[in-house]
Write a structure and sequence with these properties.
Protein name: Threonine synthase and cysteate synthase ThrC
Helix content: 25-40%
InterPro entries: TrpB-like_PALP, TrpB-like_PALP_sf
Number of strands: 16
Structural class: alpha/beta
Bound molecules: zinc ion
CATH topology of the largest domain: Rossmann fold
Pfam families: PALP
Number of helices: 13
Largest sheet: 6 strands, mixed
Order of helices and strands: EEEEHEEEHEHEHEHEHHEHEHHEHHEHE
Organism: Methanonatronarchaeum thermophilum
Strand order of the largest sheet: 4-5-15-12-13-14
Distance between the termini: 26 Å
Length: 398
C-alpha cells in the first residue's frame, strides 16, 4: 500500500491520504492532484507500465489499454489531422475492452487502490461504471456493491459477472436516490464510497492515456477532444500532460476541448459566457438527452482545479452537438470502420467536426462496439443480487 501525497490547488497544502477521503484537510473546495516522483516506466503491461505515477504499489492482472488509430479516410471525412484513442470492443483491430467504454480503465485502478487500502467499495451508477465494476471486480479479493435505479437495470450487461460484485437494484429510484443509498451503505466500517472523479485512482489511471500517447508519438498532440459527463477524462489528460511537461518529457500543453449533447449543455453555456458558475437544471436530463452518460448534474467544472480552470489555462473550447448531428457522425464512422459508437462518442465526433482546429488532434472515442459484443459473446444483463425499496434497511445486503 502507498499513502499518496496530494496537493491542494487553493491553499497549496500537501497532505497524505489513506482510503477514500481525498478532500483538502483545510476544507478547501478543490480538486487535489497526486504528487509523484520522477517519470519512469516499468516492464508491467497495460496501465501498470506507468505504475510509479499511479496511487498503488503493485499491479493486478489486467493488461489492456486503449488503441491509437489513424486512418486517411477518417481524417478526410473530419477535415482534420486526427488520431483516435479508441476505447471499445472490436477484436479484429485488437480492441478488447469487453465492457466497451473507458470506464473499464478507471474501475481496474480503483479496485486495486481499494484492495491495497483493505476496503470494499460501493458506488451508484446508471450504466458504464456499473458494467465496468460488474465485470472487473474479479481482479481483486474485495467486494463491490453497485447500486443502480431499477429503470437502468435492463441496460446493464456483463460477459461474465464477478462473484465479488453485488448488484443492488433500487425500485422506483433516480440516479440521485441511488447515490444517497450507496453513500448511506458506506457507513459500514469496511466499505468506502468510490467517489467518481474525486477519486485519484480513477483520474490518475486515465492520465496514462497521455503517457501512452507521448511514448508512441514522441510528442503530445496540439489538441485533446472529448465528450464529457463529469469531466474526469479531460481533466486526467490535462493532468497527465502537465506531469510530462514538469518532467521535461514534452514542452507542449495540449489545448483541452469538450463537448456536450443538446439540450443538456450547462458546461458549454457557462464556458461560452466566461463564468465559473453553472446554471441549475430544473428537469431530469435523462428524460431528454440522447447521450445519457453525458447528463451529470454535478460535473467537475466549477471546482478549483476543475474544467473551468483547465479550459482557461489551455485556451480550450466547449461545443454542443444535437442528437441528429451525433447519429450522422456515428453513421459516417461506421461506414469507414464498421464499428458502432456509443451515443457519447458520436457526440464527441460530431462536435469535433463542427470545430475549427489546426494541428494534431487526439479524439477520445470513449465507448464503442456494443453491437459486436452482443453478436459475438454471451454478454447478458446480470440478475440482481438484491432488489430493494428506497426506504428499506440495508442490513439485508451481505
Ligand atoms: Zn486546500
Amino acid at each position: 500500500m502507498v499513502n499518496p501525497t496530494l496537493l491542494c490547488p487553493i491553499c497549496e497544502e500537501k497532505y497524505q491520504v489513506t482510503e477514500f477521503n481525498f478532500n483538502c484537510p483545510e476544507g478547501c473546495d478543490s480538486l487535489p492532484e497526486t504528487q509523484y516522483g520522477k517519470y519512469k516506466t516499468t516492464e508491467h503491461e497495460g496501465i501498470w507500465r506507468y505504475l510509479p505515477w499511479l496511487p498503488v504499489e503493485k499491479p493486478n492482472n489486467y493488461q489492456k489499454t486503449p488503441l491509437f488509430i489513424e486512418n486517411r479516410e477518417f481524417k478526410k471525412m473530419v477535415g482534420k489531422d486526427v488520431v483516435i484513442a479508441f476505447h471499445g470492443y472490436h477484436p479484429e483491430i485488437g480492441a478488447d475492452l469487453d465492457t466497451c467504454t473507458f470506464k473499464e480503465i478507471e474501475a481496474v485502478c480503483s479496485l486495486r487502490y481499494a484492495a491495497e487500502q483493505n476496503s470494499n467499495l460501493a458506488m451508484a451508477s446508471v450504466g458504464n461504471t456499473a458494467n465496468a465494476f460488474l465485470r472487473q471486480s474479479y481482479l481483486e479479493d474485495i467486494n463491490t456493491y453497485i447500486f443502480v435505479p431499477e429503470k437502468t437495470h435492463e441496460d446493464l450487461f456483463a460477459v461474465e459477472k464477478s462473484d465479488n460484485a453485488k448488484l443492488i437494484v433500487i425500485k422506483d429510484a433516480s440516479y440521485s436516490d441511488a447515490q444517497d443509498i450507496a453513500s448511506r451503505f458506506c457507513q459500514r466500517e469496511d466499505v468506502s464510497y468510490d467517489g467518481g472523479g474525486k477519486n485519484i485512482a480513477r483520474r490518475d489511471s486515465l492520465s496514462t492515456l497521455a503517457y501512452q500517447y507521448q511514448e508512441k508519438y514522441n510528442e503530445m498532440p496540439d489538441h485533446y477532444f472529448q465528450p464529457i459527463g463529469s469531466g474526469t477524462g479531460a481533466i486526467a489528460f490535462y493532468t497527465g500532460s502537465k506531469r510530462l511537461k514538469q518532467n521535461k518529457i514534452t514542452d507542449k500543453t495540449p489545448r483541452i476541448h469538450i463537448a456536450q449533447n443538446t439540450p443538456f449543455t450547462p458546461i458549454v453555456d457557462a464556458w461560452n459566457n466566461q463564468t465559473r458558475n453553472l446554471e441549475p437544471v430544473d428537469y431530469n436530463p435523462l428524460d431528454r438527452t440522447y447521450a445519457k452518460v453525458l447528463t451529470n448534474k454535478n460535473p467537475l467544472y466549477s471546482i478549483n482545479g476543475g474544467l473551468y480552470d483547465i479550459l482557461n489555462k489551455t485556451k480550450g473550447s466547449a461545443t454542443t452537438a444535437t442528437k441528429k448531428e451525433a447519429k450522422k457522425a456515428g453513421q459516417k464512422f461506421k461506414e469507414i470502420f464498421n464499428i458502432d459508437l456509443y451515443p457519447a462518442a458520436e457526440v464527441g465526433l460530431a462536435a469535433l467536426m463542427k470545430t475549427d482546429l489546426q494541428g494534431k488532434i487526439l479524439l477520445n472515442i470513449t465507448g464503442a462496439g456494443r453491437q459486436k459484443l452482443r453478436q459475438e459473446t454471451n454478454a447478458e444483463t446480470p440478475e440482481p443480487d438484491y432488489i430493494i425499496e428506497k426506504g428499506d434497511s440495508l442490513n439485508v445486503i451481505k
